[in-house]
Amino acid sequence: MTTIETHVSELERDAEGFLVRPEQWSRELALEIARENGIPELTPRHWQVVEFMRESYLTTGAAPSIRALGKESGVPVKELYSLFPKGPAKLAAKIGGIPKPLGCI
Amino acid sequence: MTELLEAIETEEEETREPLQKVCIVVSKGSLEGIYPALIMANGARMEGIEADLFFTFFGLDALRKDRQERIRVATVGNPGMHVPTLLGALPGMSWVATKMMGRQMQKLDIPPVGEFLELIHDSGAGIYACHATVEMFGLSEDDFVPEVDGVLTVGEFYERSAGAEIIFT
Questions:
Q1: Which of A43, A70, B20, B67 is the most buried (most CB within 10 A)?
Q2: Annotated catalytic, A104?
Q3: CB contacts < 8 Å between A and B, how many?
Q4: Rounded to the nearest 10 degrees, what angle do helices A88-95 and A27-36 cross at?
Q5: Mind listing the pLDDT tens digit for each residue in B35-58?
Q6: Facing residues of B25 across strands?
Q7: Is residue A105 part of a domain?
Q8: Which CATH number is A16's domain given?
Q9: What is the pLDDT of residues B8-41, one digit of tens each?
């Protein structure tokens, strides 16, 4: 079987590396973006956060705040920061192929 | 002229180092004295920037078990409220203003002070009380919420702030 793989470098992204079109996202791309951002592997806990972020964005049109992420994703705040040390909300959004979360909280 | 300015701007962008750490000093005990500092500390952590909060003088109210839930907006001596000083001094004014602001903040998903400190603490930021103020007010560690990482002297605060930007509010 042959599949045509798309690499993240071929897609349109903003200056900070967020995908411009969320529908182009795939799990393979997620892994590529994670590696670019210093996360070598995505564990099931990483996926739980990434999928929650993406799901919330696709259903509500906005990425959740860090407070909501800690309360509703099933992954507590402390663990969020150990999974995504460079900023959980921002990184999980980037890996999940959705725009950078707006808002200050 | 515009070209020159643009050239300077691009040069600055290229050489600008990202912030590594911020240390925020909170000296006021009003709602508008405390919240901006909490939002800035949390915002720093969300960007992957290290953050410490250092509470001094009435800022310590944010950490005190007996006062944390009674943080209010200042309705007197606060021109931003656009309420005449004499009206602002009426009993209950500060309570009403705090309630109204609280409702707005809830809409924006801004947590109450206690929960906010917990969030900031869990994000890996340090939360410290000022030693001089603790002595001056006759307080002990038992008076503080558990998120407090310790009581620091000014010297220790500066030591922890090495290489950081210090913000005083």
A1: A70
A2: yes
A3: 43
A4: 140
A5: 999 999 999 999 999 999 999 999
A6: B54, B168
A7: no
A8: 1.10.10
A9: 666 665 678 889 999 999 999 999 999 999 999 9
